[in-house]
Structure formats: C-alpha cells, structure tokens
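Supplementary Methods. Inverse-folding protocol.

Structures were first reduced to a discrete structure-token string of length 417. This string, shown here, constituted the complete conditioning input.
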C-alpha cells in the first residue's frame, strides 16, 4: 500500500497553461490489456516516483496550479480507472467522441480498460502527443511486469533555453535565417457569425496495410524526396477538396520542438510542440509540401514560435461563443507516425492493431487530422464540431482515402494542375 501524500500545489508551466481547457483522447487495441487492478497499481507506483507525470493531480479553478489531494495514492489511482462498458472496436470514432465527453472520473488524466483495449483521456495541459505515448506505454509496461516504470531525471536547464543554445548557439547565422522566416498570421477576415456552443466529434478510418504499402511505393516512385507526413497531408487536402469541404489556405502543421534539444538532454514530459501556419492548397504536390515543412524546421521557425508562446500565450484558451455562418475548415495536421513504444505493445495476434485518438479542434471551424501508424496500416482521425462543419462530407473524404488513396493522390479533378 502506498503512503498518504500531503496536499501540494505547483504552478502550471507557461507552455502548459494555455491548454488547461483542452483535452485529448486515445485508444489502443486489440492487445493483451492489463486487468483493471494491475493498471491501478501501476498508476500508484508511477505517481509516487514521478510527480511530473501529473498522475493523480487536478487543476485548480483558476487554471493556474496543479493540486494533489491529501489521500493515499492507491485510492487516488483507483478513482482514475474504469472498466470499459462497450468494445471500442465496434466504432472507434464513436468511442473517441464519447470518451472526450465522459466526465465520470473527473480527473485531468483518466483511464478505461476492457475488451482487449486501453483508453486514456488527458488534459492537454499534461502534455502533447509525445508525452501521451511515453506515459501510456510505460504504465502498460509497469502493469505487465509489476515493477515501477522508468522515469527521466529532472533536467538541469529549462528545455527552451537548452534548445535555443543548442540550435542557435552552434550556428549564429541561424538567428538571421530565423528572423527572416518569421511569419505572422494574416488578420482574421470579418465574416457573418451566429451563436455557437461546442459539439466535438471524431471520425476514424483506416488505410489497410496493402493500400498503405501502395502509397509508400507511390511516394518513392512519384513523389521522390517527400516525407510520409507530407504525402499524408497531400492526401487529406485532396480528399477534402474532392468531397466538397471548403478549407482555408492557412494550414497548421504541428512540430515537435524536442528536435532542437541537445542529444544528451533528458527525456522531456509536458508540452513542447507548436503548430505553424503555412499557405497550402490541394493542388500542391507532396514534394513541395515536404519542402515547405522541412525549410521551416531548418530555419528554426518552430523554436521561435514556441518562444512567442512562452512570452505572450500563457493564458488558457477561451471557447468562442460564435461561429462563422459560412465556414471554411481551419485544417490542422499532426503526424505521430509509428513510435517504437507503441510498436512494442503486446498486440493481439491475428488482429489489426489500432492506435488512434481525438485532438481538440482549435476553433469552431477547426478540423484536426491526426495520423498514426501500426504495422503496415495507417490510421486517420478527424476531430471537429459537427454543428459547424459538414460531417457527411468529411466522412466521404475519409472513405475516399481509406478505399483508394492512390486515386486521390493522382486526381487532377478541379485542382488546376
């Protein structure tokens, strides 16, 4: 039994504070999922040794501090895990939609287990996609072995300072290049609006392994030099275009800013990612998209954007109360790929492993696509507000991508190319 813990509070970091009102969710399976009690014990063990995981902590009413209740960790952990009532595999999109709205547990970080699946709902203030992968995979490892999960040491230097010194200090010329690459968001156009309240939903589709292999082959032969992420973003934009979904030319691409940290820097938990706006269209070839993304990274744009967030963006995002009458989707794209900790999970033999999630849309007209991979398959999730954007058209776009991605990538229909 773990000991009682004292009441404690800690300030929420400036990079985490804007996300206290946002949430993410993820689901994994079919796999050899731990029993509920095994997961509870793993959470208690990890929370006792790694407070930065925020396991068992809550957010105060002002959204500025983490609070740890005066209770035994066993009891706290027990309240964070529920049994799954239904099989997520029946409809992953519907399951994720319900998960982000499930407030039964009331914790910023909560888990569900059953039907050969594990699911997690997390306040975005706890961390980004990389943090989610690390935390969940280590908890599952601890639940399977009965031993404490490994956790990183505290860094001697704040991460942003370490990244600045590592990237710009090694090559002062990069400062000038970064200054030239600074791009301010265009002013918001004045549009007619209507009263609005959130209605977030998530849709899920999978590109089967054999079709995903064809896409990889097409990338090598017809989009030489393009990354997998760029091809996936090209596929998404073209499918939305073919399905009649109006999309803003300003696309937000998520970068993991850990890439700028020294190799020796300890593993970083929390939020250390940033979304960069880029002018793109469905007519753009994947090679050009890839080049734009690479150039922004090489110039240090993600690092300078994160610095701007540190300086000016330390307040929680407020939910708007109006939405555009004639919306264009504000597309956001995050590519999580195939992390090794996910690949190593005890997936059920003979089943297609699924790893997918729901990411909070940034605005009433926000449309966030998250792309993940397991084995040969590619998983697509789209999160948006169904009372603003047309769910039927977005579903059609995802069906096109899952059924014949090569036809979508090679389409020239009304693209002007």
């Amino acid at each position: 039994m773990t000991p009682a813990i004292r009441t404690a509070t800690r300030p929420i970091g400036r990079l985490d504070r804007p996300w206290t009102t946002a949430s993410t969710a993820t689901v994994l399976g079919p796999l050899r999922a731990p029993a509920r009690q095994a997961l509870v014990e793993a959470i208690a063990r990890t929370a006792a040794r790694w407070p930065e995981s925020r396991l068992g902590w809550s957010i105060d009413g002002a959204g500025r501090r983490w609070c740890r209740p005066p209770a035994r960790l066993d009891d706290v952990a027990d309240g964070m895990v529920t049994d799954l009532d239904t099989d997520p595999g029946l409809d992953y999109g519907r399951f994720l939609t319900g998960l982000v709205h499930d407030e039964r547990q009331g914790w910023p970080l909560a888990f569900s287990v059953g039907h050969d699946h594990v699911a997690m709902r997390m306040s975005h203030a706890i961390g980004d996609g990389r943090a989610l992968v690390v935390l969940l995979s280590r908890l599952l490892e601890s639940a399977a072995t009965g031993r404490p999960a490994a956790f990183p040491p505290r860094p001697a230097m704040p991460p942003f300072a370490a990244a600045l010194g590592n990237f710009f200090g090694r090559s002062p010329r990069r400062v000038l290049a970064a200054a030239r690459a600074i791009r301010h968001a265009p002013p918001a156009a004045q549009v007619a609006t209507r009263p609005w309240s959130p209605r977030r939903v998530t849709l899920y589709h999978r590109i089967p392994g054999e079709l995903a292999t064809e896409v990889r082959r097409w990338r090598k032969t017809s989009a030489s030099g393009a990354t997998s992420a760029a091809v996936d973003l090209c596929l998404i934009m073209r499918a939305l275009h073919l399905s009649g979904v109006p999309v803003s030319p300003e696309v937000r691409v998520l970068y993991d800013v850990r890439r700028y940290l020294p190799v020796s820097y300890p593993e970083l938990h929390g939020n250390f990612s940033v979304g960069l706006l880029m002018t793109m269209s469905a007519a753009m070839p994947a090679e050009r998209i890839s080049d734009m993304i690479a150039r922004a990274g090489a110039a240090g744009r993600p690092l300078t954007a994160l610095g701007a967030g540190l300086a000016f963006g330390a307040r929680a995002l407020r939910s708007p109360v109006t939405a555009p009458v004639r919306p264009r989707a504000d597309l956001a794209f995050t590519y999580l790929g195939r992390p090794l900790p996910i690949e190593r999970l005890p997936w059920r033999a003979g089943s297609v492993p699924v790893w997918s999630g729901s990411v909070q849309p940034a605005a009433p007209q926000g449309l966030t696509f998250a792309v993940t991979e397991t084995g040969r398959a590619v998983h697509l999730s789209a999160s948006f507000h169904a009372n603003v954007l047309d769910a039927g058209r977005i579903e059609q776009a995802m069906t096109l991508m899952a059924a014949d991605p090569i036809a979508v990538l090679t389409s020239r229909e009304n693209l002007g190319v």
